[in-house]
C-alpha cells in the first residue's frame, strides 16, 4: 500500500519540461536518487523524488522505485503511472515489465487491459490465450494465432496452453501443420518437424517424420518417394542445406534423386546454385566447373562476387575478367570491382583501360578507392564536412525532454533506458537536429550514435564526427611502446567497439579492443597488470594497453604484415595461417579479397580504410594503404595528402 499511496500522490502533479529555464540537477544527485529508489521506501527517497519532480528523469525515478518489486505493486499504481506517462519510453518499459508480472500472476483481465502490441512471443501467447475467452466475431483472434503458429522455429513453452486451445477449436488444422513443417524444414529445424508431426494423422505423421530425417541427414532413400510437389520441395531443401557442409555428397545425391523425384529445371538449378556458392567460398577443387553449371539467369550479386574471387584465388586472370564482365552494370561499377578489373587489366598490359578504371575508383573515399589512388600515385579523395549547428537547432534540442532524458541516462550508466529514449526521439528530429543530437551524444562519450548518420550520403563526410579520437595521448604512447602507429590503433578500436568502453559481443569479447577474457587475462599477466575479472577489460585505458600488446603480438607472429595481423585479430591466427598456406603466392590486396569469411574480409578493409581517416585526423596526411600491405614500407615515399573531390561520395 505504501507504494500505491506514494505514486497516487504524484498523479496530479505537473511535470515541467522547461529544463532550460533552470539549473539542471547534477549527476551525483540523480545517481543518489536512483539508488534510493531501488533501495525501497524511505524518507530520503520521498525527499529525492520531491526535489526531482520537475526533472525530465522523474518518470525513470518512479520506474526504478516501482520495478524493484513488481510482485508487491498494486495494479492501480501501475495504471496511474501508465496514464501519467502516456507514450513515453518509460511507460513502454514499465508496461512490458508489468505484462510479464501479470502473466506470472495469471491475471488475464489485467493482461487484456494492459496489453499493447509487442515482440515478446511469450507475452503474445499469454495475451492470445486470455483473449480466447472473448468471442472472435471478426476472426482477428484466429488469424493472429495462425500467424504466430507459422513461425519456423520452436516457440516458448508459455505458448503451449494457447496451442491446446487452438487445436481444440480447429484453428490449427492439418493444412496449417504442413505449412509449418515445410517452414521448419527450410531452416533445418528437424526436431520441430518431428514435434508437429505427432498431431498429424498416422499416414501423414510417418511422412513428416521421414522428411525430418532427410533434412537432418539427406540420403538416397528419398529416391523411393512418390513423384509429388512436396517430396520434391523437401529434397531440394535438404540437398541445398547439405551443399553447405558437403558439396560432393550433395551433388552425388542430386544426380541420384533428380529423375526419380521429377525435379524441375528450376529446382535443379537452385541446388546447383548452392553447390557452386559453397564450393567457391571454400575454394575447393571443381568450383569453376560447378559455377559454370549455374545458368546465367540464376546468378545473383553474391554468386557473381564469388565467381570473381574463385578465379582470383586460382590466379586465372582471364576467368576473373570474364566473371567481372558478366556482372550487372551496377555491381561492376562498385569501387571494389573497378579496382580489381583495373588490376587484372594492368597485369595483362592494358595500361590505358586500367588507368581509366583506377581513376573512377579513386574518386571514392574508401578502401578500394584508396588502393586505386595508390596505383595512380595520387593523393586520396577526402572531402570532409564540418557540423555547424544553428542557434535555433541548439535551442530546440535544449528544450527536447526526450533527448535530455536519453543523454542524461547515458551519463548515469543506464544504457538500455537511454537507448529507449534515443530511439523515441530520433523520428521526431529533422536532419539538422538529428546530426546535432548525434554530435551532442558523441561529446559525452556515446560514440555509437554515429551509426544514425547516413540517412543522406553526404552525412558520411562528417569525418570528425564519425571518427572520434579519445585517449589520444595513450594511443600515441602505446603505439610507440609496441612499434605500432596510433592511427592503426585508433582504427582498430573504431572497428571493434566504436569507442564504447562497455561494448560486449555475442562471443563475450569485451571493451574498447574487444578481447576475450582468456586472452585479456593472459596479456595482463605478461604485462604485470592486475586482473580483476571481466571488468578489467571494461576499463578503457586498460583495454587499450592489453589490446595494443595483443595486436603487436599478432604483428610479430605474422612477419610484420599489418593486414595479416588485422585478419588474425578478427578471425584468429589459425584460420589466417590456413588461408596463407592455401594461397601463399597471392598479392596482399588479392589475398584480402579472397578471405573466405565475409566478416573478416570486410573487417580488414574497414580497419585499413579507417587507418587513413585517423592518419588524417592525427597527422594531416596518411600512410598509403599499399604501404600497410607491406612488411617493410619506405618511410616517407608512401605518404598521401588529401584532395577534396566532389565526385567522391562513397566513404568507409
Notes on the protein architecture:
The chain has 652 residues and is an all-alpha fold. The chain has 4 domains: 2-116; 150-318, Bacterial muramidases (70-kda Soluble Lytic Transglycosylase, domain 1), CATH 1.25.20.10; 391-461; 472-643, Lysozyme, CATH 1.10.530.10. It is built from 37 helices and 4 strands. The chain has a two-stranded parallel ribbon with strand order 1-4. Strands 2-3 form a two-stranded antiparallel sheet. Helix 11 (174-186) packs antiparallel against helix 12. The radius of gyration is 30 Å and the shape is globular. Residues 1-23 have low confidence and may be disordered.
Please specify the SSE layout and strand pairing:
Layout: H1 2-8, H2 27-39, H3 43-51, H4 58-67, H5 75-85, H6 89-105, H7 108-114, H8 121-131, H9 140-149, H10 160-169, H11 174-186, H12 190-197, H13 202-216, H14 229-245, H15 247-257, H16 265-281, H17 287-292, H18 301-314, H19 317-325, H20 329-332, H21 335-347, H22 351-362, H23 367-376, E1 380-381, H24 391-398, H25 401-411, H26 415-425, H27 431-443, H28 463-466, H29 472-481, H30 486-497, H31 517-527, H32 540-557, H33 562-571, H34 573-582, H35 588-593, H36 598-619, E2 622-623, H37 625-628, E3 639-640, E4 642-643
Parallel strand pairs: 1-4
Antiparallel strand pairs: 2-3
Helix pairs in contact: 1-5, 2-3, 2-4, 4-6, 5-6, 6-7, 7-8, 8-9, 8-10, 11-12, 12-13, 13-14, 14-15, 14-16, 15-16, 16-18, 18-19, 19-21, 21-22, 22-23, 24-27, 25-26, 29-30, 29-32, 30-36, 31-32, 32-33, 33-34, 33-36
